[in-house]
Amino acid sequence: MQYKQLSNGVFIPMLGFGTYEIDNSDVADAIQGALDAGYHHFDCAHIYGNEEAIGKAFKNSDVKREDLFITSKVWNADQGYDKTLKAFEQTLKDLQMDYLDLYLIHWPNEKDFQLTLDTWKALETLYNQGKIKAIGVSNFSEKQLKDVFSMAKVKPMVNQIERHPYKTQPELAAFDEANDIVNEGYSPIGHGHLILEDKTINEIAKKHGKTPAQVVLRWQIDTDFVIFPKSSKVARVKENFDIFDFNLTEDEIKDINALDQGKHLNY
């Protein structure tokens, strides 16, 4: 496993397991399968509707809480100072945990950004109380981050954004890095077969004796993104974890970077 150090010194595993769209009936097997494969970083969110089942799955496993890195997110409807505090406590209750490793604002409120700023104040409060080891945002633009900077006592440590070979977001990623914000990429393979069928990626995969998915995930990490692919298939879960025995060359990274189309594939 490779790790990134956040601005406050906390280490985050660069490969995690996504829990989006995992049905409650499948959660127990999915979580145990991920743990068996070697995952210890899990990306969750209240809006996914499965945090209670995830909490039960961890309780029924033999993994120690201190060996896990758990992320969750506050949803749009729960933004605002008091509502965020309440939403956070619900997430802790559902997950059966007494702290989170990372808590994010899931989306900026485009219509009332003051609500988002109030939500950030709540995250700072929880962080200062020791209930969260790190705090950050998701889907924030450079301008929105600057607005948070203007009032924040604790700057965001993470920005989670859509990121895959057809949407590489180089300008935003560079801004994050310049401000000591770690980049996380969701939909790292693009939610579909377009990227996995791409000629360039398949040619690179053949050179390394790896699958196209493994090449894309390796590219994410080699370009300094924390990622968390999701699959309910045991073989695929193991395959996604088997990416730490090779590296891409600079030319291969450039070739994948050149595939960028600014194309939204998170569907």
TrEMBL record:
<protein>
    <submittedName>
        <fullName>Glyoxal reductase</fullName>
    </submittedName>
</protein>
<keyword id="KW-0560">Oxidoreductase</keyword>
<dbReference type="InterPro" id="IPR023210">
    <property type="entry name" value="NADP_OxRdtase_dom"/>
</dbReference>
<feature type="binding site">
    <location>
        <position position="106"/>
    </location>
    <ligand>
        <name>substrate</name>
    </ligand>
</feature>
<dbReference type="InterPro" id="IPR020471">
    <property type="entry name" value="AKR"/>
</dbReference>
<keyword id="KW-0521">NADP</keyword>
<dbReference type="InterPro" id="IPR018170">
    <property type="entry name" value="Aldo/ket_reductase_CS"/>
</dbReference>
<dbReference type="Pfam" id="PF00248">
    <property type="entry name" value="Aldo_ket_red"/>
</dbReference>
<comment type="similarity">
    <text>Belongs to the aldo/keto reductase family.</text>
</comment>
<dbReference type="InterPro" id="IPR036812">
    <property type="entry name" value="NAD(P)_OxRdtase_dom_sf"/>
</dbReference>
<feature type="active site" description="Proton donor">
    <location>
        <position position="48"/>
    </location>
</feature>
<feature type="site" description="Lowers pKa of active site Tyr">
    <location>
        <position position="73"/>
    </location>
</feature>
<dbReference type="GO" id="GO:0016616">
    <property type="term" value="F:oxidoreductase activity, acting on the CH-OH group of donors, NAD or NADP as acceptor"/>
</dbReference>
<feature type="domain" description="NADP-dependent oxidoreductase">
    <location>
        <begin position="15"/>
        <end position="260"/>
    </location>
</feature>
